[in-house]
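Hi everyone,

Forwarding the result from last night's run.
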Amino acid sequence: MRMLAVFLSYYCVPLLLFLLFFVAYKINRTNLITSFLFTCALITFVALFSVRLYDSGSRAGIFVFGLIALVFLFVLFFGAYIIAGFLILNTILIFRKERRNLKHSLTLFLALGILLLALVPYFVNFRTLSPIVANMVYSVYGLIFYYIIHIIQYIIGIVLCNFSRPKKNQDYIIVLGCWLRDGKATPLLARRIDRAIGFYNNQKKKRSPPKLILSGGKGADELRPEAEGMKEYAMEKGIPEEDLLLEPESASTLENMKFSRAIMERESGGKPYKCIYSTNNYHVLRAGIYARRAGLKINGIGAKTAFYFLPNAILREYAAYLLMHMKWNITFAGVSLLLGNIVIPILLRRIAPAG
């Protein structure tokens, strides 16, 4: 009992943060608040655990502390080069397996950007720069550092969303559409449908299965609405037609959610209903944000994606997420650069004489 009390008193901060994380995760897992709380809890726990090991004075404790410190320093000094190397190898792999185009080159551009930022300090002596230019450079680096932390939180958010395990008591599953090739479901779209079918079959073993709402309109380069191609695929997989509802008008994820909500409200006759959505694992977080914007407080299930495809897909998702909050990001970047280049230098010049 005394050991438990000591443990709780020493680790009270990370335990409180973990508690806040679980509460936030329960309320809404499709935002970055949950990933931020999880990260803070994990970092504070590891930091306190490391200090505890060092203070213990035992050889094993000091060895583990040294190992943790070594890993931290290794990541700090070589992490950028490791990530850049991984991204370059991923680009080579995706070029071999997919078409060579701009969409599949995002990892290459990011790798080159990381290498440029990491190597510039070795070739440019910032002390020789004029104060104005130096302030601008430091401000830009600070802004980049912020967005590095931000994209890490976004990736953690995606991972956390994919731990969702909805109960097998759903009335509907919204299957989000994506591009058809020659009027047929692509492998990427097929995985979304298969994920929904898997849930459908598992629930069917215990109770009435949910209706699948196949949501997707006709794009400019498509032969027919995505919903029709999805229906054909689902029926080939053994889903009866009476359990399939088509939403063939949507042109975006937000419209997927809005139009599907209208179908569910019509089908349920105004009665309460339960639903989830099915998409690819990298898309679950952003799709959930759109679901809430459409008035649906629901969780999603994510279909597995080939590992080589994930880095590019996540980068596209993150870019789309930034565009969702474009006004906020432009304002934040503008204010950050303004503070770094005008406000803070003026304050420092006023304070310096007094010092």
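The chain has twelve helices and seven strands.

Cheers,
N.
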